[in-house]
Amino acid sequence: MGNQLDRITHLNYSELPTGDPSGLEKDELRVGVAYFFSDEEEEADERSTPSDCGFGIKEHSPADEEDAGPGGPFSLSELEYSAFRAHECIFSKLRENDDLDVHAATTLLGVCKPGDLLELVAAAQPPHWAVCERDGRVIHLHKGEIRRDDLLDVCNGRRGRIANGRYRYRPLPADLVVQNAAGHVGLRSDEICWTNSESFAAWCRFGKREFKAGGEAHSAEQQYFLKVHLAGSGQVHTLVFRSLEDMIRERRRVDASGILHEQAVIRDSV
């Protein structure tokens, strides 16, 4: 593919004994270590706004906005993905299968319900994820802190969508999703074990330890496959990872940079 970058991911972390701040998994066997980070991806979000970046956004004119209406659906040019654990599809972001249109924050306010996952998108940034609480508020991981904020403030001009079906796991009841999120509000970098807003929000909805850094053991037999669908070329590049958290982190890096690391690719197809 022409890229000669020498590593798959970049992280700046310290290694600490594993722990579960919610206590929900206290009776289960914990494997490996947890990595506690400042959320550097979300800090990058603050340094740029949708109007600052050109990658991934379809060129559009004021007429396009008028046609869509002030809160109407709008289509972005985004990388599409599907992901598998062994032969089981666990994640899908494919326009042919899903509604990937995005909406203004005011529209989201009118349709999202407590426990919903929201995916806010902007150019050259990984999507920012949040859990809908109630009364226009969301709970999210931002700059190394679990926060409760107004959705309009979090969007900050970005459009978004409800992403409940992005992961193919069985969801928890909505009230438990909100409880999971609310129970962590106020925690900071050295107290949390998620590396980005998506992993935190997905853990709240599905309760699976795999979304936590160090939440599952690495083994030669366990493999996750991420298929990156390149729009316009018909190409599908397949990458392999040994943990769900590693796969999420790399996919978000690709969303931000548009670059696939060559040694991560195990198979290309057209």
Q: Which key phrases capture this entry?
A:
270 residues, alpha+beta, 5-stranded antiparallel beta sheet, 12 strands, 22% helix, globular, disordered N terminus
Query: Averaged pLDDT, please?
Result: 75
> Unreliable segments (pLDDT under 50, ≥5 consecutive)?
1-40, 42-68
Largest sheet, strands/sense/barrel: 5 strands, antiparallel
Distance between the termini: 14 Å
Looking across the biggest beta sheet, what order are the strands in? Answer: 4-3-10-11-12
Number of helices in the DSSP assignment: 7
From the spread of the alpha carbons, the general shape counts as globular
Structure description:
With 270 residues, this protein is of the alpha+beta class. The protein is built from seven helices and twelve strands. The protein has helices at 40-47, 62-68, 105-111, 151-155, 174-182, 197-206, 244-257, and strands at residues 14-16, 34-36, 80-85, 88-93, 117-121, 128-132, 137-142, 145-150, 159-162, 224-230, 235-241, 265-269. The strands form three sheets. A five-stranded antiparallel β-sheet has the order 4-3-10-11-12. It has a five-stranded antiparallel β-sheet with strand order 8-7-6-5-9, with helices on both faces. A two-stranded antiparallel ribbon has the order 1-2. β5 (117-121) and β6 form a beta hairpin. α5 (174-182) packs across α6 (197-206). The chain is globular, with a radius of gyration of 18 Å.
